[in-house]
Design goal:
This protein is an alpha/beta fold and about 290 residues long. The protein folds into two domains: about 10-140 and about 250-285, Rossmann fold; about 140-250, Dihydrodipicolinate Reductase, domain 2 (2-Layer Sandwich). The chain has nine helices and 13 strands. The strands form three sheets. It has a six-stranded parallel β-sheet with strand order 2-1-6-7-8-13, sandwiched between helices. Strands 10-9-11-12 form a four-stranded mixed β-sheet, with helices on one face. A three-stranded mixed β-sheet has the order 3-5-4. Helix 1 crosses helix 8 (about 250-270), helix 3 runs parallel beside helix 4 and helix 5 runs parallel beside helix 6 (about 180-195). It is globular.
């Protein structure tokens, strides 16, 4: 029998990446689920000193400024003094992934890493060594997580089933996304095992202009927030083609997945579970996703 869940009103989220679009969407999703929004959060240089989210004011701390870690340490201590379980959520910039994770690890602050990019091997290594509970995943949409799990299972169960096929991958995101899609990289790893030929990241076609994205089928009203992926497998003689697609307009499905991940992680922390790094497949398997 699973342990009872923490009251959602006892979970405080420190949403790092405000006032970015994903940070705002995640903050609102967490508030809608009854979680508490922390009064301070990390941001990047040149951002405003505060932001309002549904009548909640959040002070923004430049993560690169001297003393940022002390400010966040005080924030975490204040939340704990109120009987809250603090969880950091990271939707910042790929260049900040490892530095931010190092801060969370130094503070012993459980976190959900939604930002893609950075040195992922180092991210996992440093977090495991620190013993910080974390959910680290390239995608927070539960249906896409299930698709990734399905592709991984197929690759492990039937390696080489598509040997001799060529793989073509195109992914489109809003032009503000700096790096290659983490989801595309994860799926390509499985598809590479199926064709018995790993695909280098540089061969994933990355669309980042409004014109290219619109030509790819993205509605104009969603050019500033979308995730369109197409994976195409073609036989050597061109007579057979398999195509997998997952297209998302907007950010709400990711934000809901982040809220699920936060609740999952907070419950593991409260239950004193062995500290470890989880991914969204762990969250999905737990039945914690609504």
């Amino acid at each position: 029998m699973s342990a009872p869940s923490l009251p959602r009103s006892s979970i405080a989220v420190i949403v790092n990446g405000l006032p970015g679009a994903m940070g705002m969407q995640v903050s609102k999703a967490c508030l809608a689920r009854g979680l508490v929004l922390a009064p301070a959060a990390l941001t990047g240089p040149g951002m405003p000193v505060s932001v309002n989210v549904d009548s909640h004011t959040v002070a923004l701390v430049d993560a690169t400024a001297p003393g940022a870690i002390d400010t966040m340490r005080a924030c975490v201590a204040e939340l704990k003094a109120k009987g809250l379980t603090p969880i950091a959520i990271d939707f910042t910039h790929p260049s900040a992934v490892n530095k931010n994770a190092d801060m969370y690890n130094a503070l012993g602050l459980p976190f959900v890493m939604g930002t893609t990019g950075g040195d992922r091997e180092q991210l996992l290594k440093s977090t495991r060594e620190a013993g910080t509970p974390a959910v680290i995943a390239p995608n927070m949409c539960k249906q896409i997580v299930a698709f990734q799990a399905m592709m991984k299972h197929m690759a492990e169960t039937y390696p080489g089933a598509f040997e001799g096929y060529t793989l073509r991958v195109e992914e489109s995101h809003q032009k503000t996304k700096a790096d290659t899609s983490g989801t595309a990289k994860a799926v390509v790893e499985s598809l590479g095992a199926l064709v018995k030929k790993p695909m280098p990241e540089r061969d994933i076609k990355k669309l980042r202009t409004d014109a290219d994205s619109a030509s790819f089928g993205v509605p104009r009203e969603h050019l500033d927030g979308h995730a369109y992926h197409t994976y195409r497998l073609t036989s050597g003689d061109g007579s057979v083609t398999f195509e997998f697609k997952h297209n998302v307009n907007g950010r709400s499905t990711y934000a809901e997945g982040v809220a699920d991940a936060v609740i999952f992680l907070a419950d593991r922390v409260a239950a004193g579970k062995e500290r470890r790094v989880y991914d969204m497949i762990d969250v999905l398997r737990s039945g914690a996703m609504l």
